[in-house]
Amino acid sequence: MLTSLPDAVRASLGPVAGFLDTVFAAAPYLARLSQRRPDTLQACLIETPDRLIAMAIDNLRIAGAGAPDAAALDTALREAKSDAHLVTALADLAGVWDVRAVTAAMTRVADAALQAALHAHVRFLAGQGKAHPVTDPDNPIPGVIILALGKMGTGDLNYSSDIDLIAVYDAEALALPETEEPRKRLPRLIQSVVKSLQDVTADGYVFRVDLRLRPDPGATPVIISTDAALNYYEGMGQTWERAAWIKARASAGDAAAAARFLGFMQPFIWRRSLDYAAIDDIRGLARQIQTVGRRAEIRPAGHDLKLGRGGIREIEFYAQIPQLVFGGRDERVRVPGTLDALQALEDVGAVEAEVHASLTADYCALRSWEHRIQMRQDEPSQTIPLDAAARADLAALAGYADAAGFEADVEACLQRVHGHFSDQFENDEVLASEAGSLILTGVEPTPDTITTLETLGFSQPAAVWATLNGWAAGRVRAVRSSRARTLFARIAPQLVDRMAATGEPDAAMTRFAAFFENLPMGVQPLSLLSNEPGLAADLIGILTLAPRLASDLARRPALLDAMLDERFSVPLDQDVPDSFRAVLSEALSRADGYEAALNTARRRAREERFRIGTQILKGTTTAHAAGTAFSAMADACLALMARAAQDETERRFGPMPGECVILGMGKLGGRELAADSDLDIMIIYDGDETASSWFGRFATRLISALSAPTEEGDLYTVDMQLRPSGKAGPVAVSLSRFDSYYPHEAWTWEMMALTRARIIAGDGRLAQAVEASFERALRRPREARGVREDALSMRRRLAEAKPPKSAWDLKARPGGLQDIEFIAQTLQLIHAGKKDVLRASTSEALAALGVAGVLPAKEVNLLTDALQLELGVLQMIRCAHGSGFDPDQASTGFATRLAELGGCREIGALEATLETQMAAVHDVFQRRVGKM
C-alpha cells in the first residue's frame, strides 16, 4: 500500500514504514484514509497528535464560520474528520495515546463538528431572513440546545461510534424572527445539521447521528420544547432513560439554557429516596442480557465485546446501579463517565478498591480492542470476527504476535468482568429467552435481540421488537404503572418463548397483542403470569387458537384467576356430579342481595364456560362431555337464578301461590349446548286464582336474571317461543293449559320439539304431572305419513328462511345437525305410541331407535358418527370463533386441531370428510323423512 503514496510522503516515512505497512495491511480503512490524506499522514511524523487534533478542530470552526454553502460545509467537515480519524488511530496504535486520550480526542472533534454545522446552517438561514444574524458563534440561536448523551456525553466517544443527541429549545430564551414558527423552523434546522453530519458523500461522512433518545421518538419531532421534555420525563420517564441522562451534557448551542434545563432534569435522574424500584428495572435489563444462548458463552470468536457476557455493558451496569440508588442523596457519585463513576463509588465505599482497579483495567482493554475492531473498516461494530484471518489482523493491531495470545487475554478479561458483574446478580433469575438475549428497552433492538426473535420464528423481528418495546415503555394502558412495567419486563422472555412454542409465533403475537392492548389494567394479570409460569403457556395457546376466548380474556382479565382453580384442569368426564352447581351455590350464598347474586352468577358461569372451552381447544374432552358440561352449567344457573327470581318476586308480591317447574327444550333439553347456545325454556305453574299474575312476574324476573346485562355482562340469551301459542301466549303456562294444548292444538313441529323436553328446575308433584303430561301427548298414536309430510314441510321452511351461511354452517347444511335431529324426532313421534324410543338426547334417541328396530344398525352408526363429528367441530368452532367461522382467518394450529377431530391432517381433508358424511346423512333423511 505504501507504494501508492506520493514519493515525498513515502520518502519521509523512514523507520516507521514497517509499522505502517503492518497497520495498513490489517486495517484497510486506515490505508484508504492515508491515500486520501497523504499530507496528514506526513504531518503525523512531525507534529504531536494533540497539535494535529487542534488543527482539525480549528478547520471545523473555520468551516462553520465561513463555508459559503452546504456543499462546501459538508466537504470541509468530512476532510477535518478524516484527518482526525487518521491521527487518532495512529496515535492509538503507536502507543502515543492511551484509550482515554483517544476517546477524549474523538469527543472534542464531534463537539466541534456539531457546533460548526449548527453555526453554518443558522448563517444560511440568516442569509434568507429566516434567522437573526449570528453574533455569537458558540450560540448561533439563543434558546436552541443540543445535548450529547451516551459515550459522547461522557467524553469518551468510540473510534467509529454514532453520536447520541437530543435537541430541545427553551421557548422563553428562543430568538427567531417573528415570521418564523419554532415548531416548523427548528425541526428543519436540526434535520439540516444532521444531514451535514451523517450523509455519505464522495468524501465519506462525519458522524452517524442518533436522535432516538429523545422523549417518545416515534411520535415527537426531532426538537421539542424543554417544557414538553420535562413533562414527559416527569410522567412517563423510565429507569433506562434516567441511566441515559446521567451521561447528558451540553454539546452545542445555548450553554446557559442547557445548564438551566439540566438543572431541572436532576430530580428525574437523581431521586432522594433509595430507589429500589430502579434497582429492579436495571437489574431486569441486565438479566435480559444474560442468556443461555450464544452470547452467554465466552468464546472470543464472534463475541460481542460491548453487549456480550463479560463485556463493556456489564461494567457500565456495575457502576450505574449504585449510582442510581445512592446518587439522589450523595452528589459525589453523580459523575457521567464509567471510569469516573467507579472511582467515585470507591471513594464513598460502595465498590472495593481491588474490584475498581480490576474493572478499570479491563474496561480500558475492552475499549481499546473495540477501537481496533472499528479501525479495520470504520464500522460501528464491537464483535470479534469469526474469520480466522480477520482475527489475526485484529490481534496484530492489538500488538499481539499471534491470535492465540490475543484470544487468551480476551477470554480472561471477559471472565474477570463477568465474575464481578455476577456478584451483583448471583441470586437473580435470568430474564432472557431460551433462544438468546431479549433487550426490550432503548431506541433500537440490539443485533442479538433481532437474532433471538428470528431464531424463535418471528418473520418480522424488528416489528415484534417495536411492539414489545412500546409495551416496556408503558405505551398501552396495561403497563402505565411502574409496577406493571417491571412485571412485564420479567415475563416478556417467557411470553415470546411460549409464542414460538405454538409453531405460529406471528399469529400468537398478533392475538396476544389484541388481548394485552385491550386490558384495562395489567398488574393483576401480569402478576399471575409472573408467579405461575405454566399459565403463560396455556394463555398463549388459548389466545392463538381462539380469538373469541382471547376477546373474553381481554374484556375480563380476572378470568386468568380461574385457570388457577383446582377444578380448571379436571377432565370434564371426571367432574363430580353437580360440581358446578355446588360452586355456584356456595358463591351465591355469600352474595349480598339480588344484584350481587346476578353478578356472581355471571362471573362464575363465565369462568366455567372458559374452563370448558379451554378443554375443548386442548382436545382433552369430547363433544358429548362438553355438551353435557355446558348443559349442567345451564341447569345450575337456571335453578339458582330461579331461586333468586323467586325470592325477589316474593319480596315484592308475596309468597309463591303454588309451584312451578322449568322445562328445558332444544339443545338444553338434549344436553347438547355449545359455548354460545341460547336457552330454550318453558315455565309451567300450578296454583290458585292469583297464580297467573304472580308467575308472569316471576317469569319476567327470571328472564331478566338470565339475560339482562349487568356490570358483569349477561348470562344467557333466553328463548321462550316454544311455549304454547308462542309469542302470543303468556310467558308462564298453567298446567291445565299445557295439558290441553299439546294433545289437541300443537303443530307437528311443536310435538317434535317436545321430544327433547326435560325438567330443569322444580320437583315433586308438579314435575311428575308435567312429565306425565308430555309423555301422554308424545305417545298418542299418529299417522306416519302425516308426521313425515309435516316434518318435511317444516324442514323446507327452515331451509328457505335460514339457509346455510357457509360450508361450515353444520347446523343448517343438508346432512347437518338439523337433518339428524329431524330424523330422530320424526321417527320418535311416529313410533312413540308403541315403542320405547323417547329420549331427549339425540344420540340416545338414535340408539333407542336402533334397539327398537326402527333404524337399521348401519344407519344408526352412520348418524351417530356424523352427529359426534359435527357436534365436535361445532363445539370447537363456537368456542374459538363464535357463530361465524372463516377458515382463512383461523390460525394453523386451530385448523390442525379442527382437522384432527375427523382423523385428518389438514382442514381441506376434514371438509372432504364432512362433505361425504353429510351427503350420506342427507340420503338417510330423504329415505326416513322425505325428499327436499
What are the key terms here?
single chain; 932 residues; mainly alpha; 5-stranded mixed sheet; elongated
Question: Your description of this structure?
Answer:
This protein is elongated. The model has no long low-confidence stretch (mean pLDDT 90). α36 (817-831) crosses α37. It is mainly alpha-helical and 932 residues long. Strands 1, 2, 3, 4 and 5 form a five-stranded mixed sheet that branches. Strands 6, 7, 8, 9 and 10 form a five-stranded mixed sheet that branches. It is built from 40 helices and ten strands. 60% of the residues lie in helices and 5% in strands.
Short précis:
This protein is mainly α. It has 40 helices and 10 strands. Strands 1, 2, 3, 4 and 5 form a 5-stranded mixed beta sheet that branches. Strands 6, 7, 8, 9 and 10 form a 5-stranded mixed beta sheet that branches.
What order do the helices and strands come in, and which of them pair?
Elements lengths: L6 H7 L3 H10 L1 H9 L1 H6 L5 H18 L3 H24 L5 H29 L16 E6 H4 L9 E7 L12 H17 L10 E2 L12 E3 H11 L2 H7 L3 E5 L1 H15 L6 H14 L22 H15 L11 H10 L5 H25 L10 H10 L5 H23 L21 H9 L5 H12 L9 H20 L3 H12 L6 H9 L1 H13 L1 H9 L3 H4 L16 H10 L5 H25 L4 H31 L4 E8 H4 L9 E9 L3 H17 L10 E2 L12 E3 H10 L3 H7 L3 E4 L2 H16 L4 H18 L15 H15 L10 H10 L5 H25 L10 H10 L5 H22 L4
Parallel strand pairs: 2-3, 2-4, 7-8, 7-9
Antiparallel strand pairs: 1-2, 1-5, 6-7, 6-10
Helix pairs in contact: 2-3, 2-17, 5-6, 5-7, 6-7, 7-9, 10-12, 13-14, 13-21, 14-15, 14-18, 15-16, 16-18, 17-18, 19-20, 21-22, 21-23, 21-24, 22-24, 22-25, 23-24, 27-28, 27-29, 28-29, 28-38, 29-31, 29-38, 32-34, 35-36, 36-37, 36-40, 37-38, 38-40, 39-40
